[in-house]
Write a structure and sequence with these properties.
The chain has about 325 residues and is an alpha/beta fold. It is built from 14 helices and eight strands. The radius of gyration is 19 Å and the shape is globular.
């Protein structure tokens, strides 16, 4: 397994492009390459060159946009992370390999740095499909996403039998959703030198301080349906994040990002504007105290909300 030096933050492209499971349906965005070019350039300038995408995001639209940008730079400058989604697997001899080849084409590359099984639809069936990709060099490292601890361990067993291993886990993790920590996954990853990537650490904007009962998310998107009903329960937590942020000369979303980093994870931050990149880069430098972390976690627990996505299994 190749060792890859990772930046402290990965940048996410779930909201890039339109179509099934794309930015328009999930986030209410309508973003194309013209809108996003300045975002990509800002990231490059700040040394944030790890990008996370998936075939299913807009059914290839996100990969197409990202690949178009990367194609203008040296490939070695980037760490590209994309995913095999079992629910859209093609009927070929090795669907995992087929989907990876298609991702490589859209991303204008002949290899993927980290390739993921997007969800544990069938660990026994899909995990072995990664082995051929590792052997050929088409992927450098493999990971599993939305897997619970037992599923992570089983995927690792399957790969180890062929001389490889799970080297990364990508799960939903935030102040409001710490299921992976409570289930022992963060500790397992630490003990086994597995990188843990935290997606939705801003809870699709609910932990940004931008939205509240007086300023809900725009209706018509999936995130509005999920988060608008619980915004009133987040007031005390957001107030504390703002206060702690002032002590660190930081914004509310920067505290949410810093929290994820301080917990030993690599947060994946969705970026749609250059200022999102700048905020994320600055957040990576914030060191929260144990007292601050304890305060945030206490207030988060007191919200009583459960932000588990409809696509997620329980981690424990």
């Amino acid at each position: 397994m190749e060792t890859v030096k990772l930046p402290p933050i990965a940048l996410g492209t779930w909201s890039w492009g339109s179509g099934m499971a794309g930015g328009d349906q999930v986030f209410g965005n309508h973003l194309d390459a013209e809108n996003l070019k300045s975002v990509f350039e800002a990231a490059y300038d700040h040394g944030l060159t790890m990008w996370d995408t998936a075939t299913v995001y807009g059914m290839g639209a996100s990969e197409d946009i990202l690949g178009g940008f990367i194609n203008n730079y040296p490939r070695k400058d980037f760490i590209i992370s994309t995913k095999f989604t079992p629910q859209i697997a093609p009927e070929t001899a090795n669907p995992v390999e087929t989907m990876c080849e298609d991702s490589c084409r859209r991303l204008h590359t002949d290899y993927i740095d980290i390739y993921w099984i997007h969800n544990p639809a069938d660990v026994e069936k899909w995990t072995p499909g990664l082995i051929a990709l590792l052997k050929s060099g088409m992927v450098k490292r493999v990971g599993v996403s939305n897997h619970n601890l037992a599923q992570i361990k089983r995927a690792d067993e399957i790969l180890r039998e062929a001389g490889y291993r799970v080297s990364a886990v990508q799960n939903h993790f935030s102040l409001l959703y710490r299921s992976s920590e409570k289930a022992g996954i963060l500790e397992y990853c630490k003990e086994n030198n597995i990188d843990f990537f935290a997606y939705m650490c801003l809870e699709q904007g609910a932990l940004s301080g931008k939205y509240g009962t007086n300023n809900p998310m725009p209706e018509g998107s999936a995130r509005a349906a999920t988060y608008n009903p619980i915004l009133d329960k987040l007031d005390n937590l957001i107030a504390a994040m703002k206060e702690i942020g002032e002590a660190h000369n930081a914004t509310v979303p920067q505290i949410a990002i810093a929290y994820a980093i301080n917990k030993g994870t690599y947060p994946i931050i969705g970026v749609t504007k250059p200022r999102h990149v700048e905020e994320a880069a600055a957040a990576a430098k914030i060191k929260l105290t144990q007292e601050e972390i304890a305060t945030l976690e206490k207030l988060a627990d007191e919200t009583g909300v459960d932000t588990k996505g409809s696509w997620e299994n329980h981690m424990s």
